[in-house]
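Hi everyone, sorry if this is the wrong subforum. Our group has a chain we'd like a structural model of before ordering constructs, and none of us has done structure prediction before. Sequence below.
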Amino acid sequence: MDASSPQDQTSDAREPDLENSGKVGPIWAVTEAVRLRRFLCYGSEGATYSTKEPSLTPENALALVQLAEGGRGCEVVEEVRRLCVCGGAVRPNAGLLALAVCSQRADGRAKRAALQALGELCRGPAQLFTFVQYRKELTGAERGGMWGRALRKAVANWYNGQDALRLAHTVTRCKHKAGWSHQDLFRLSHIKPANDAVALISKYVTKGWKAVQETYANWENAEELMKVFAYLEAVEKAKHLTDELEVVHLIEEHKLEREQILTNHLKSKEVWKALLKDMPVSCLMRHLGKMTADRVLIPGSPDVVAVCERIQDEQALMKTKTHPFSVLVASENYKRGHGKRGKLKWDPNSDVVRALDCAFCKCLSSVEPTGRRFVVGVDVSARLGSLALGSFVSTVAVAAAMSMAIVHGEAEAEVLVFSEGAMVPCAISANASITQVMAQLVQARSSTTDCSLPILWAADNHKMVDVFIVFTNNETWFGRANPAETLRMYRQKTAVFSKLIVCGMTTNGLSVADPDDRGMLDICGFDSRAVDVIRNFVLDVI
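Answer:
Right subforum, don't worry. Here is the predicted structure as tokens:
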């Protein structure tokens, strides 16, 4: 690889503080901005992403609190906006906590900015409920004690700012979360409906369907009002119908979703057919086990053919930017033949399994490149057969899928299989299956792990590398050198600001990354969100 390639330009970059204010330090320095981004993205200010949900409290977000108390709350709000827009906030609740903190400070501009951001950042009611709960926890007050004019106005604007039909969908699909309901928020915000349609929904939420019927049944001149009335009527009918064909009719006419249908009706083949017409392919993959268990998908049936076609729809997969790892998770969950708690069981359909394998391969071709140079090190010093924390996928499958995604997506990427006594380059061909790649990754084993080996290999072989990623099953062991120190020596030798990501796929605790170096990251366990964390870390979003 040419040492003067464009990627080396990253070595001249400098870490920008929020709003370009504050001192600018070395590229590896951890500033207040970096600690804030880590909290917004990982849920903690350290250099670790864990699949285990973190405890989100102001005590774990000191940079956030310091910035807000230092009169820089507006800058925090803008950072939350930026990360949400670019997809960097894989822990969206951390951003909601940040908004809640900023909305409570004495700085009037920060308060207004945080509350105005609700309409953009609370994309669904679950986020709004969570934000309100954070406000309650921060004030330490009873529900009524925190409801000042500004919060009432912000919540009312959130409801009034939505299209009426969309709002009807919102209040019937997700009714409560985090100890709050739409009824709570409508009443406590003292909402004044922006139009007749919102007034109808307000009455439905606060008084119930019977009150809506009594008030609006004979209104025939307002078209939007009647659309909302008809939608809510369909939702209410679906709760009481026993005839599945009538339920199908309501689904098709009003675009009702699975969450609005009774559990008993979800055993119906015809109901599932109707739901599948508008169901996103990612959602479809999550429910394959349920459909098979309920004999909706019978081997050799046209229904199986139709579902397999949906799964393999390349255009749909590309439109949703489905990552191969997400397909792998769906495939492994389906092959397992039972749900997480073991209550739901099914015999995996071989046609569905093949369709998922095909979808995995199609997604490989659509992985968006980062333009960085990679070395992927797969530690084989211990057997790669256990399950990764957070995804119920074998660790060898995780390593294989991520290696394939990087090799297919990036112009310059090498995969190494390593252990204490061996470092073996692993060539992954363009048409190799994940099963073949898994076999390649388990060709050698010894007893100890040294995460510095891929970096030392790159240095010894004069390789210019932007990102080192290590996948391991073991608690890491420092061999010839500490990996963090080895990386710093490599940077000094090559003048490239290389980054190191260590994925401890079976551990809840990892301490390889130097928390004071923004170019290092530990990942504990591995799930679909870890894929986004890696991409955002590589692209300097975090």
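For your construct planning: Residues 1-17, 19-25 have pLDDT under 50 and may be disordered. Residues 230 and 254 are 8 Å apart (CA to CA).
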